């Protein structure tokens, strides 16, 4: 199911509108955390009891861990562990909604499950990890959060509770046969109260041989690899600095001598790029960031470029080591990049130029603040202050 994203006059966020109630939700969690596992069980039981038409999908390790404690069947499917492993088609085709329980790494992992498809389902993330910059919701709000997403865009006529119609339902009717918004109790959301979406740009990444052959995937038909945060070309365990030719917009920019290079999205600007001296960029700014890692030249400053500007990193023949490592969202791809090979990066198109519809990117469901006007909210600013301690003076307690 492909939801529709529409603009609003209040702010730059988009509104989520389902064409019909979502049917399949993928639940992912942080590994090796018993408390989050217990939360997952509670969350899954709530979804199953309150939204009986929904199917729950778990990753194999999570399904094995909690299946005996749920008391009802769940679905699972094989999932890729590396970015160069093609995502199973059934996962991208069947998943309507993704919900994560963990930190930013869990959100990145969920996004990586769709690293070879232009469509990513809306992601409802609960911050239960170490940092939680991408986790919009607190887990104690899971009932409100899930209902807000499930009902998003429902017209009042469908969301209203008609006790008469409910009383006429027979026991033989299967609640999964024809799911409707009217089966969910509570105050109608209506079209005026949709869930709000922050559409995060991704990177389109391709690796090419010196002859121009695409090499970034074990499946030639898989196409580009998409990343939410960044792609990193780095020296790995090699003791030598790497010499990388940098091209911007098809033109030679410079010969970088450094530990490596980072190309990040605005979302990734607060990750490795920030630690390497890169700028912080708002996720609504359509851009790419080019940041060197420990460059030999002190005049090599980070760059912020338009998202539609192609960037190419080519390993120079001057290198003492013959290969560099490539990592996508923190996961090393199986094959390194040798001399003459290129890593080509371009920002993902998130809006169809012909139809004007929003597509692509990672639709992140933003948490609303009760009693606060939409135009007054800015979760990104709050994250900078509360999580990154932006511009805190030395010696001041945080």
TrEMBL record:
This is NADH kinase-like protein POS5. Residues 163-187 are annotated as: Disordered. It holds the Pfam family NAD_kinase. One of its GO terms (molecular function) is ATP binding. Keywords: ATP-binding, Kinase, NAD, NADP, Nucleotide-binding, Transferase. Belongs to the NAD kinase family. SUPFAM superfamilies: NAD kinase/diacylglycerol kinase-like (SSF111331). One of its GO terms (biological process) is NADP+ biosynthetic process. The keyword Nucleotide-binding applies. It comes from the Eukaryota.
